[in-house]
Write a structure and sequence with these properties.
The protein is α/β, with parallel strands linked by helices. The protein has a seven-stranded mixed β-sheet with strand order 2-8-7-6-5-3-4, with helices on both faces. A three-stranded antiparallel β-sheet has the order 9-10-12. A two-stranded parallel sheet has the order 1-11. It is globular, with a radius of gyration of 21 Å. The protein contains eleven helices and twelve strands. Helix 2 runs parallel beside helix 8. The protein has two domains: 122 residues, Alpha-Beta Complex (Aspartate Aminotransferase, domain 1); 235 residues, Aspartate Aminotransferase, domain 2, CATH 3.40.640.
Length: 378
Amino acid sequence: MSFKYFDNAATTRVDDDVTAIVNHFNREEFFNPSANYRYSVEAHNRIGEAREQILRLLKGQNGTIYFTSSGTEADNQAVFCSKKRKNSNVLISAVEHPAVFNAANALKNMGYEVRICPVDGCGRVDQAAFASLIDQNTSFISIMHVNNETGAVNDVAKLVKTAKSINPGVVFHSDGVQAFGKVPVNLAELNVDLYTVSGHKIGAPKGIAALYVKKGVTVAPLLYGGGQENGVRSSTENVSGIMAFAFAAARAVKELPQNSEKYRSFTAMLKSALSEAAEIKYISEDGCSPHIFTFAFKTVRGEVMQHALEASDILVGTGSACSARRAHDRIPAALGLKEYSDGVVRVSFGRENTKEEVALLASELLKNYHILKKYVGK
């Protein structure tokens, strides 16, 4: 690649190992798992093996996962298809991914009250406010595990314990798309009812994700058809995507400790360089997921910095790639960024990033900051 890629929270590159798996199951073992002949039965069995492998990696053996086409689909199924009483209330955080935030707000038209929990300046849920917003009429809660904009890590296990102590019948979902493979995930300890994971954030292709459903929790189908995925998610299974997802997930979990250490060193390099920049605010904190480093300039627009870096073949983000501009404004407001809201830059690392690339990024960030700052107010 001629460019240096630092937007891995948006998506990740599929490498040769994963491509080989995708090609094999699209060209050699390409059979429909629902057919009756031997090759299809073998494909069906391979899906089962991949399902169990991902469950083990999630430490979620007290449940199952249903493969979906995306994290958005899995989040929507959690929001719309979990059991909820009519006229009850649902609770989400102010910084949920649009797949949860917009889906939850759509519930308003169905007669549900939607309650929004505030967060701190890093994006973590305010635990006192969280507890105050739950009552006996709360039927569904969705709080993301790792924030896709800042890397903030919520104490999901504590939030679940709090919620269940107030209302044992509440269904608790967590969007773990930015968590799985980036921070340790143990669903047995988190004790969530539903949990979303996605393949393209950890090196698998786009188009494959999954929803974890704890044993005893009921989720209705979002899609109706041939009854695949035990009737929970109809559609011919994406065998190549599922097999690639299982491989990428195993690799991500195995490499997690070394990658985390590497990413922390990258952040330290960037902070050292950016210490020369006046009027900068670090949004990501030490306790955040190490793969995301988000900061904001007071006088330089994040989008302008993004394009300045792009001119040097360096790609960074300014926030969620899944958000329209209107949706993107919601997050800075929730974080209380005020005069820094237009200057947000999100750098997100991947397994292929090198120290040399980060050194170049640091140099270009600082150089462009000094150049762009001269034009402020002109």
